[in-house]
Specification:
Chain A is of the alpha+beta class. Chain A contains two helices and ten strands; from the N terminus they run ββαββββββαββ. Helices cover 13% and strands 32% of the residues of chain A. Classes of the chains: A alpha+beta, B alpha/beta. The interface between A and B is large, with 47 and 39 residues.
């Protein structure tokens, strides 16, 4: 945090250090807004993230359409009914689609290049969004070639778990 | 139900402006009122569209948006989704017979905020999608790969959308990006988010669009060529990308609803021109399919056929579309304005050749076209 913001003591304002606007030929006034928020996770997210901490991927089943969705939900987004039955899902699945992020923008979640994918876990009725990794991503052409051969992936867990989505480090080819 | 006519439209250029947001908003609204010879307080109601928090950061809409657009001390409302909805909200009290005139304004200065991808990551939920890097470009790139794989659409066909739209934009005085490009330029531009190339992604632009709506009687007094509101439909899909088939969006439902209201049974034949919202090039092809301009999976062949060129039988984005100018939030009102100008025959150098009786305006926001809205206008 300390190196990401500098504090202007006179104006009692923080400025993001690693963001610059293009040079302007007219007068502007820069303001960076840093505000704290504190969101309740609710019981369903809490149980899902507690599950990740234990190395489990948890989904819930809709009592009406019988679909198993992951991450777990409180209610079915299609039927609008309760989803109270908890299911532990297999940690393997197949890739529905993916992209290779190879550019920078402010607030990015990790250093590029990285792959984001929709992963259809076995026994789930939807896809999970997460990273694909475990191999060299530096050459985009090679990555495209490699991804053509990848059909199955499995979860790789982080060494340290904090009860959040990063407890899964990424999915790697099987 | 009363008829609603579009009397007049004004728009700002998409190019970066040294004016403050307040000055930048005031100009097109004042120009509109001068054109129709009305005072601010003679307008019955105002509807504004702006997102003052993430896309402006100033969060003082009550000053900059309301004062500058002349909406103060009048019945008025402001919405944050897309300005095409503000247009529909503006039509409603006239249809009801409550008001005779409504002024609709969409406003943004894209040059004053961080990158689109920084901002749209805040549209993702903070617990799951945002930490794994979902924002509009990463979501669109995954949608594009699925589109290429499932239907055999080629990257060349997607690149042709950029060539067409930027080509059209050369004749639009308000367009932001003015550059003649060819398919190779697009294909060789940086693969920022494979399979998406840099030139296939919309810029971020300035943009204030103002539009005066009026009841039939009033519209006929104010202009010799009113453009009539004929139909409307919209739908929001569920949020999580993994729950949806990303190639089966709510655009089909939105279009069906708009066509039904307007009495359009064969959109490919009955619609003379379409202004659609394509923040990523391939989306123009996918949206054309879902608007019923061609069969599912045939979007690539549609662009190959030349039908959607400005000289074609169904020109799509003669203004240059969102690839040439992307004033977030206001962009939906720009689509309606451009569609109306084509019906009026006042689009200038990018006026299409044939007579335009029916025009379609479309807008979208959210990941992979989560929300979709369609407006039909008639002569």
């Amino acid at each position: 945090m300390a190196e990401k913001y500098k504090v202007d003591k006179d104006l009692v304002r923080m400025e993001i250090v690693d963001f610059t606007f293009p040079e302007k030929e007219y007068r502007t006034s820069r303001h960076d807004t840093v505000l704290p928020y504190n969101w309740a996770l609710g019981p369903t997210w809490t149980r899902f993230f507690d599950g990740l901490k234990e190395g489990k991927i948890l989904g819930t089943r809709c009592k009406k359409c019988n679909k198993v969705l992951v991450p777990a939900r409180t209610f079915c987004p299609i039927c609008y009914e309760d989803m109270q039955e908890w299911i532990e899902l297999p940690q393997e699945g197949s890739i529905e689609t993916w992209c290779l992020v190879n550019y920078k923008y402010y607030g990015q979640v990790k250093e590029p290049p990285y792959i984001i994918a929709q992963i259809h876990l076995d026994k789930a009725d939807c896809s999970l969004t997460h990273f694909i990794g475990g191999f060299n991503l530096s050459d985009p052409d090679k990555v495209r070639g490699k991804m053509k051969t990848v059909s199955r992936v499995k979860a790789v867990w982080s060494k340290e778990k904090h009860g959040d989505i990063y407890d899964i480090a990424h999915f790697k080819p099987v | 139900m009363q008829k609603v006519g579009i009397v007049e439209v004004t728009q700002s250029s998409g190019v970066e402006s040294p004016l403050s947001l307040m000055e930048f908003t005031y100009k097109p609204v004042k120009e509109l009122l001068d054109k129709v010879d009305m005072r601010r307080d003679e307008v019955d109601m105002y509807i504004l569209a702006a997102t003052d928090v993430f896309h402006s950061g100033m969060s003082c809409a009550n000053a900059f948006d309301w004062d500058a657009s002349g909406a103060f001390m009048k019945p008025a409302s402001r919405e944050e989704g897309d300005a095409i909805t503000a247009f529909v909200y503006g039509c409603m009290p006239i249809m009801e017979g409550r008001y005779d005139t409504v002024l609709v304004v969409g406003l943004i200065k894209g040059s004053e905020n961080p990158e689109n991808d920084t901002l749209t990551s805040f549209v993702a939920d903070p617990f799951y999608s945002r930490p794994v890097g979902i924002q509009e470009t990463t979501a669109a790139a995954m949608q594009m790969r699925l589109y290429l794989q499932r239907y055999g659409i080629t990257e060349e066909q997607c690149a042709k959308v950029v060539v067409k739209n930027l080509g059209n934009a050369l004749f639009n005085p308000y367009a932001h990006i003015k550059k003649r490009v060819n398919v190779d330029d697009v294909l060789n531009s940086e693969r920022i988010c494979d399979p998406l190339k840099a030139m296939e992604c919309a810029p971020k632009s300035e943009g204030v669009c103002a539009m005066l709506l009026a009841s039939e009687e009033k519209a006929k007094k104010l202009t010799d060529k009113p453009v009539w509101f004929k139909g409307w439909g919209s739908s929001m899909d569920t949020f999580y990308l993994g729950d949806r088939d990303l190639l089966d969006t709510q655009l089909k439902a939105a279009a069906a609803s708009a066509y039904k209201m307007a009495g359009v049974s064969d959109p490919r034949k009955e619609i003379d021109v379409a202004e659609i919202c394509e923040p990523y090039a391939f989306q123009e092809l996918l949206w054309c399919e879902q608007l019923g301009f061609c069969a599912q999976g045939q979007g690539g062949k549609l662009i190959d056929s030349g039908v959607t060129q400005i000289t074609g039988a169904l020109p799509v984005n003669p203004s240059g579309g969102v690839l040439a100018m992307n004033p977030y939030v206001a962009r939906g009102l720009y689509r309606v304005a451009e569609a109306a100008l084509q019906i009026k025959g006042k689009a200038g150098e990018h006026q299409v050749d044939g007579k335009v009786n029916t025009a379609l305006a479309h807008s979208t926001y959210g990941f992979c076209g989560q929300w979709q809205g369609v407006v039909i206008l008639g002569s």
